[in-house]
Amino acid sequence: MLAVHRPSSAVSNGDSVQIPMMIASFQKRFPSLSRDTTAARFHTHEVGPNQCCSAVVQEISAPISTVWSVVRRFDNPQAYKHFLKSCSVIGGDGGNVGSLRQVHVVSGLPAGSSTERLDILDDERHVISFSVVGGDHRLSNYRSLLSSLFQHLHPSPISGTVVVESYVVDVPQGNTKEETCDFVDVIVRCNLQSLAKIAENSAAEVMKKTSMR
């Protein structure tokens, strides 16, 4: 199950937007979000007058440890982001805050490469955040934050995960805020759907091996 929500305030006037206010509309479908304090602490973006902001929520039928093992790899985003064809760590070791990576985008998209900085990597709270600091693309000042939280899926024996990814980005010249958010939402949505497929397949393999013992 995946959902997208975009607050009207984030695509009109410059303001400080708290993503938990956006996520409130998801809480009936994702009860775990109503108990999560991580969203209130981390999913807050300062949105300027020429920026837009949005959030995507993805439910994954896999343990949080499985999901987090994929998304925490700042040095290997192409593992689930299929619009990326390669990644090179160009600063730091790729696992510490301040590390830089250069990613190259697949052909067919209006971009060539992106230089990105790791801003947050919190293994305890399962939060990762990065900022775009350069590259050949039109998404200037892009900042993304992804958090994962545990939920129990009844009656499934497999624990589940709810992933929230929010972002803020400059609106390119010649585009509207709505157009920009529509474009980025598609990218984020595809990434999270890919993440769900990879994590769920991995969890299923583990369950299969366990049942054969």
From TrEMBL:
GO molecular function ontology, one term from the record: protein phosphatase inhibitor activity
Annotated localization: Cell membrane; Cytoplasm; Nucleus
Membership in a protein family: Belongs to the PYR/PYL/RCAR abscisic acid intracellular receptor family.
Classification of source organism: Eukaryota, Viridiplantae, Streptophyta, Embryophyta, Tracheophyta
Keywords: Abscisic acid signaling pathway, Cell membrane, Cytoplasm, Disulfide bond, Membrane, Nucleus, Protein phosphatase inhibitor, Receptor
An example Gene Ontology biological process: abscisic acid-activated signaling pathway
Gene Ontology CC, one term: nucleus
Principal subcellular localization: membrane
InterPro entries on file: Plant_def-hormone_signal, Polyketide_cyclase/dehydratase, START-like_dom_sf
Provenance organism: Brassica campestris
Listed name of the protein: Abscisic acid receptor PYL4
